[in-house]
Structure to design on (112 residues):
């Protein structure tokens, strides 16, 4: 089982960033997928969740209208499109597939 995030980096406030999650070693399409984030000194929080087939999504209030979670089961890939980024979005972002399958995280820094 392997989950790897990518796409993090430094972005200016108001800018976009797209995170990717590559999954391998298991049947990706059998599991819901989620993105979480953890800012320094804070608890890890759920940001967005998508069902196995991508028909249902859910977002933390602070991400609604700005972030979009998606997946491509044919490619075993998940994504988080983040727009209108704010400094408060600065955190390490983690992908989770199913239960207990986590990536190592990717740093997102929103700063001018």
């Amino acid at each position: 089982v392997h989950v790897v995030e990518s796409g993090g980096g430094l972005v200016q406030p108001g800018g976009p960033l797209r995170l990717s999650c590559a999954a391998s070693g298991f049947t990706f399409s059998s599991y819901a997928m989620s993105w979480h984030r953890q800012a320094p000194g804070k608890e890890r929080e759920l940001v967005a969740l998508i069902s196995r087939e991508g028909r249902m999504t859910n977002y933390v209030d602070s991400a609604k209208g700005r972030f979009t979670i998606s997946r491509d089961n044919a490619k075993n890939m998940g994504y988080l499109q983040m727009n209108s980024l704010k400094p408060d979005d600065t955190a390490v972002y983690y992908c989770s597939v199913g239960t207990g399958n986590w990536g190592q995280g990717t740093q997102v820094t929103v700063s001018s």
